[in-house]
Amino acid sequence: MEALPRSPGGAVPRPARRIPAAWRIFARNRGAVAGAVILLGWAGAAICAPRLAPYDPLGLTGPSRQPPSALHLLGTDLLGRDVLSRLVFGARISLAIGLVSVAIGASAGSLMGLVAGYYGGRLDGALMRLVDAMLAFPGLLLALVVIASVGPGLQNVMLAVGVSSVPLYARLVRGSCLAVRAVEYVQAARVLGGSDRRVMFRHILPNVLGPLIVLSTLQVGSAILIGSALSYLGMGAQPPTPEWGLMTSDGQAYLASAWWISTFPGLAIFSAVMAVNLLGDGLRAALDPRSTYR
Amino acid sequence: MATYIGQRVAVLIPVVILVFSVVFAIMHALPGDPVQLMLAGAEAGVTTPERIAQLRRSMGLDEPLYAQYLRFAGHALRGDLGQSIRFQSPVNQLVAGAAVQTFELSLAGMAAALLIGIPLGIMAGLYENTWLDSGAMLLALLGVSMPLFWLGLLLILLVAVHLQWLPAISGQQLRGIVLPAFTLGFVSAGLISRLMRASLIEALRHDYVRTALAKGLRRRVVTTKHALRNALIPVITVAGLQFGGMLSGAVITETVFSRPGLGSLIVKAILWHDYPLIQGAVLLTSVSYVLVNLVIDVLYAWVDPRIKYA
Amino acid sequence: MSERGTTRRAFLLRSSAALAGAWGARLLRADRVGAAGGNLTIAMAADAEPASLDGQVDPYVSAWLLNSFVTDPLVLLTSSRKYVPMLAAGWSASAGGRIWTLPLRRGVTFQDGTPFDAEAVKFNIDRVMSPDTHSALMANYLGVKNFLKTEIVDRQTVRIIYSSPVPALLYGLSICPLWSPAAVKQFGPSFQQHLVGEGAFKLAEWVRGDHVRFVRNPAYRGARPWQEHDGPAYLDSITIRFVGEAGVLGQILKTGEANLVAGLPAQAVGTYANNPAYTIIAGYQPGNGMMFVMNTGRPPLDDLRVRRALRYAYDQDTMNQTLYNGSYVVVKGPLTKYTLYYWKGAESAYRLDPARARRLLEEAGWKLNPRTGIRERDGKPLALTIVMLHHKEIGEYLAAQFRAIGVDLRVEVVPGPVQLQRAQSGEFDLMYERLRSYEPDVLFDEFYSKNYRPGGWAWTRFQNATLDKVLLETQSTTDQTRRQALFTEAQQLVTEHALCLPTLDDPQYYAMTKKVHGFRLGAIGSWYFVNDISVET
């Protein structure tokens, strides 16, 4: 749930490692491969949900609070909905929260960082003060404040979580951008009359791609966790959406009498987030060799 | 040093003003009329249009926006954050009471994080690429991948209900803070142990460590005397940042363990659309977070001479 | 006034009978419990924590309950649902129920030593009625609309004068807390943190979001025969702990951190019911039950056919079985069966009949879109919003049932003030509304069309001359037979026009350890008779 610690400066451009080398490093990392496999599994479940799910995830398809059985492999929830079907459809929702919010955060944040780093000067100063202001809302707080103004609901959760990660990306990209700006070939491209946009996207952005991918991957995990925390607080997905966090927290009251209702969705969150973290670590080792930790 | 601090503080002022304005803007973009909300919970049966108008006046809501902004800013500068709609008490009082609780919890949480994270990281770092390392790192991964509310409840069921070692609702007693502190600290412990491991490994590769080893000093002495000290510096920085995050990240822990605190106060304020309370509590949290970061930066600069003050 | 006003003689007869009963109980009690004393810790859901501890202001039952530790009411509604005098020595209504005269008990003092007398009662009544107090509901119960003034007849007699009859006044008097005027004046706006009454316990401290603590009032004289013993309470202290997580609240007796859980979550009832180490008591509440009123002021629920279709689309008994193992109370009309003048006919008015529901929707022009499974009219889907405060599984259950007839029900869970604001602005189709009262007069508050106004409780926006006439008449009728006829008709009309969606009612479950003795419930499921409770140490 905690955001990643900010990268101090994000500084110095690194020569991007060549793809085959990166791939070799990645493939040797057993954890990363395991993470990738688990994630692919969940992604497959999300895509094929209507085929995989034995029942309608919203329908009352059996007696309530039935323990796992041949009929309901993971049991039924407090209303009699099939936990497995909800879990499979929930993969769509929880992964979407992760991916969409990262897409929002990464694109808005990167753009901010690029513009600030490339143009520098007052614009840079103003944008970075804004980033500082956003960073002054720690952890969940920024997401909570955004939810307060737009109201709960799935789309708003994605927006809120996305917005709350904007400053991380802005800082990362700006730092790299500042360093690359001075590098010769970028200078050359500018002198040769390349448009600002072209220079930014063709010459600068590729240089920050490695760390950007790593940060984005890890953020998917924390977005899923923040999304579930918002559900727990009643400010996230609204019932009867089969969001994993909502399923876990709704079932918690039954942990003593019907453990399966919240245990399986809890494990789903855990497995997905752990997979993302493993993958992220592997990618970092492969793409971002200088950063040895985090 | 003094100039450095001065500069850092100077940079903070616009940030705080910006935070303040953002909070003000968001609160005024919120749907719902505070007066209506206030009456909805309180004056059924006797509300007249005159009464609504009178309340709007008394809350200053009939003024233009810029005037409200200046008035609120003026009051805030004098330390007056207004009156909570829901609780009918001064925001100052509510926020101060909650802040103490949250500070306690964060402190205990940080202690738990360090007590778990540092030894775990050292162990993993010293025995790099052994099963001890893998085990420790798996545990660290567990910490950063679990939904906190789930972890908290599982802990309660196991430690408080089943084993009956510690209380489930924390209350005011010292014993009660152990479980919530552990829950809150577990996530940070994951990060800290990973960081500790990495920076210890890096430190052990440094020349001076190798030299010391080559000179025949016992490995244990070298690690404790030289490598650990250097390896701890980045850990302390990140721990500081984590501490700041805990001040608000405690929301979930506070809810699960039924503790009053800033996080749960903010959530309540948001749920009840209590605008003055949200404004005040968010403002205070952000400012204290920024201040904590400042203190850490200054400490860091002081500890690590490689960092320039300019 | 025969039934409730009680002639003095009838009252004496009844009270002596009750006295004998109380004696018996006392004897039993003597050998049941050795030493009195102990500290009672009650765990309660954190949502139940009142915003203000002053029940003259706060509209929630939890505030009145905590107040009842600190102060006794003028009148008590006993568990056998009879009004009996408590701090009043009796009452009489004259001028057709417009003038109420209340002689007061003598020799009672508040916890700050000031006397409880006619002046104090007048001060309290006037305070509730004053707009400056911002009383949310108590003023309604005390008949603020018709209130003229309070008069001091003599030192120990007070008279309340109304412009028209207030037949349900005794209920209001039975829940209205009475405060020491001196303390109210002394503490001003922060009085709610420093409650001073005359009751068995004094408020010691309130740490918001955490706990409220009460300690014994050694000067309390008791209120026999309605309590089992005279003199100060047995308990040394009562602590209320607010628990934020339902999963924890359900387990808290097992950790030994509380002796009693008030409002045990239904899902935890099973874990205690079969365990001999604990006792479970259910308190059943009068009033509406978990009712959802329909917004007839906007489409699609302005159409009677659609409203009726919804009533045919679900079944409370199955809902109860599915969600709560049948432990809740099924409610099929606007009132629960524990309410005065409950109309039994409501139980057979609507039965689960999806085919009929579909037919009604077809007639109303809502045609099924086979692609979405949701009905549409003029390209607009049949989507309804249900706004609720808690028990969201009921909303989810309804949503699943309504999908079967092609209605898309969207569940929104909001906090109290937002609910009230949405009710005012009309941004809802179905809205949770529950007023709890033994008197059926809540129907007047909720369905009399003129009570649709700022601060009013009639949220359906329904206008019907007959219903209005019937409800208005209930408010000036003191003859109980006539009142029963009128309220029956009102319930019939509300059901016929399908103005509400009744569901279930949650009994208040109290689970306690075997060491808690003397715990008894009052008539509305929440009066704890704290004076008589003791906890073995």
Brief account:
The complex is a heterotrimer of chains A (294), B (310) and C (537). Chain B is built from twelve helices and no strands.
Whole-number mean pLDDT of chain A: 84
Quote the distance from N terminus to C terminus of chain C: 47 Å
CATH class of chain A: Mainly Alpha
- Supply the CATH superfamily name of chain A: MetI-like
Estimated radius of gyration of chain C:
24 Å
What is the percentage of strand-forming residues of chain C? 15-25%
Radius of gyration of chain A: 21 Å
Number of helices of chain A: 11
The low-confidence parts of chain C are 1-35
| Inertia-based shape of chain C | globular
Describe this structure in words.
The complex is a heterotrimer of chains A (about 290), B (about 300) and C (about 525). Chain A is an all-alpha fold. Chain A contains eleven helices and no strands. Chain A has a single domain, classed as Orthogonal Bundle (MetI-like fold). In chain A, α2 (about 30-45) crosses α4 and α5 crosses α7. Residues about 1-15 of chain A have low confidence and may be disordered. Chain B is built from twelve helices and no strands. Chain B is mainly α and about 300 residues long. In chain B, α7 crosses α10 (about 220-255). Chain C is built from 17 helices and 25 strands. The model of chain C is unreliable at about 1-35 (pLDDT under 50). At the A-B interface, α5, α6, α9, α10 and α11 of A face α1, α6, α7, α8 and α10 of B.
List the helices and strands and how they pair.
The complex is a heterotrimer of chains A (294), B (310) and C (537).
Chain A: H1 19-28, H2 30-47, H3 49-52, H4 83-119, H5 121-135, H6 140-150, H7 154-181, H8 184-191, H9 196-232, H10 244-251, H11 260-287
Chain B: H1 2-29, H2 34-40, H3 49-58, H4 65-77, H5 91-126, H6 131-145, H7 148-162, H8 178-204, H9 207-214, H10 219-256, H11 262-271, H12 275-303
Helix pairs in contact in B: 1-12, 5-6, 5-8, 5-10, 5-12, 6-8, 7-8, 7-10, 8-10, 9-10, 10-11, 10-12, 11-12
Chain C: H1 2-5, H2 8-32, E1 39-45, H3 61-70, E2 75-77, E3 83-85, E4 92-94, E5 99-103, H4 118-129, H5 138-141, E6 147-154, E7 157-162, H6 169-175, H7 181-187, E8 201-207, E9 211-216, E10 237-243, H8 246-249, E11 260-262, H9 266-273, E12 278-283, E13 291-294, H10 304-311, H11 316-324, E14 329-330, H12 354-363, E15 367-369, E16 374-377, E17 380-381, E18 383-388, H13 392-403, E19 408-413, H14 416-425, E20 430-433, H15 442-447, H16 465-474, H17 480-496, E21 500-502, E22 504-505, E23 508-513, E24 516-517, E25 534-535
Parallel strand pairs in C: 1-10, 1-11, 18-19, 18-20
Antiparallel strand pairs in C: 2-3, 4-5, 5-7, 6-7, 8-9, 9-10, 11-23, 12-23, 13-20, 13-21, 14-22, 15-16, 16-17, 24-25
Helix pairs in contact in C: 10-12, 16-17
